[in-house]
Amino acid sequence: MAYSDKVLDHYENPRNVGSFGKEEEGVATGMVGAPACGDVMKLQIKVGKDGVIEDAKFKTYGCGSAIASSSLVTEWVKGKTIDQALDIKNTQIAEELALPPVKIHCSILAEDAIKAAVADYRKKHPA
Ligand code: FES
Ligand code: FES
């Protein structure tokens, strides 16, 4: 199956690969797995005191679409508040990357990773 140009671009030049130190101020981690295929995605956000996501990093062990989805969302979450980040829907990711139906779960993984990272942030920083 052919990947779209946008998937290939993110796959070949992934943005923001890596991780932050867990103890760094404002860092939260979301780790999710896809039951369908066993792929794993780790997404970290670094949130400033104003509640805005300053930076994001990912590590994904998975298919090209999963890597592209996580690369894309690290770009999308930057500059958003954590509430705004929760508004990112897998359908937007799938549309941006022109994912075929069998690869929709890869974009769901990225949406779930954002939710998991925000949940981790809220656990560490109760309002
Ligand atoms: Fe997981 Fe695609 S089945 S890499
Ligand atoms: Fe499973 Fe892409 S995350 S095939």
* Beta strand %: 15-25%
Bound molecules: FE2/S2 (inorganic) cluster
Structural class: alpha+beta
Measured as a percent range, the helix fraction is: 40-55%
Low-confidence stretches: none
Strands of the widest sheet, in order across it, are 1-2-3
Identify the overall geometry: elongated
Largest sheet: 3 strands, antiparallel
Task: Please explain how this structure is put together.
By secondary structure, the protein is α+β, with helices and mostly antiparallel strands. Helix content is 44%, strand content 19%. It has a 3-stranded antiparallel β-sheet with strand order 1-2-3. β1 (27-33) and β2 (40-47) form a beta hairpin. It is elongated, with a radius of gyration of 14 Å. It binds FE2/S2 (inorganic) cluster (FES) (2 copies). The site of one FE2/S2 (inorganic) cluster (FES) has 4 residues, from loops.
